[in-house]
Amino acid sequence: MAATAFPALHRQGLDTLQVNLTYRCNQACVHCHVNAGPSRTESMTADTLALIPPVLAARAVRCLDLTGGAPELHPQFRDLVRRARALGVEVIDRCNLTILQEPGQEDLAAFLAAEGVTVVASLPCYLQANVERQRGSGVFRRSIDGLRQLNALGYGQPGTGLELNLVFNPQGPVLPPEQEPLEADYRRVLAADHGVVFNRLYALANMPVQRFAAVLSAQGQLEGYLELLRRSHRDANLEQVMCRQLISVDWQGHLYDCDFNQQLGLRLAGDAAAAADPAGRPHLRDLLQRDPSGDPIQVADHCFGCTAGSGSSCGGALAA
């Protein structure tokens, strides 16, 4: 991981805190870079979670981006959302849509709407066969039902302020197509076939990390995919990669430059001697006193997944 031709990067400022609340999930998708699933038990403790609102305030963070697993399965998910919204912070829920039909989550969509939470929902294709090849049998219909539930509450509808953005992932070791025409296809098919509307589509590249990397390796395709990412790198994407305004927090409160570095154990580069953690790993509590702006960012070959082609970030493509 240390030897890479990826260009050096530094953080511009901390705009978004992306927090992985739990690896537990009601699904186990092929492309999942955190190996989330129903059998995972890792979950953020109450003491660590309690640090999040003070950090948001101390660093004047604009956005709290909640992910997992299924972040909604954390028992304190709703309390954290309320506290962040009370601070005027935008909250993003990275929702797999099927969670909306899980037992005990029947009122989840109404809660998200009441708190004005931005929903970023994974729907890797508008065709049932493609979705279920990647995410399992029955997932497409449950996802459509979830989207209709959100639409009925105002999500994706003009003038409501309730934002619903969808996420596309390719089926295998290829770059995503151009985002704008793909978004037009999503709008046309979802509206005509299912009566579903949304705000934006994010086209994301599959990252060669964890479960997806293991699948590619077993198929003898990992090196070929890494070479495709390297060959498709565009310097123009470097200014907008998410790590320049974001810090990722794992379920134990440790800090990383992005969610992918988190899964590879590449800790935050800017404060290697963090005294707050016995192992010297930068921790969420460090951000109460320290501004990470200007810090170097840990880079490796997987970073080409964010700069290849049109680019890929948590907010979709970086270039037209």
Summed up:
30% of the residues lie in helices and 12% in strands.
What are the main properties of this structure?
single chain; 320 residues; alpha/beta; 8-stranded mixed β-sheet; 11 helices; 12% strand; globular
Can you walk me through this structure?
The protein has 320 residues and is of the alpha/beta class. It has one domain: TIM Barrel, CATH 3.20.20. It contains 11 helices and 10 strands. It has helices at 46-49, 52-58, 77-86, 108-114, 128-135, 139-152, 179-194, 210-218, 222-231, 259-264, 304-307, and strands spanning 9-10, 16-20, 63-67, 90-95, 118-122, 164-168, 200-203, 246-249, 255-256, 296-297.
Ordered list of secondary-structure elements with their pairings:
Layout: E1 9-10, E2 16-20, H1 46-49, H2 52-58, E3 63-67, H3 77-86, E4 90-95, H4 108-114, E5 118-122, H5 128-135, H6 139-152, E6 164-168, H7 179-194, E7 200-203, H8 210-218, H9 222-231, E8 246-249, E9 255-256, H10 259-264, E10 296-297, H11 304-307
Parallel strand pairs: 2-3, 2-8, 3-4, 4-5, 5-6, 6-7
Antiparallel strand pairs: 1-10, 8-9
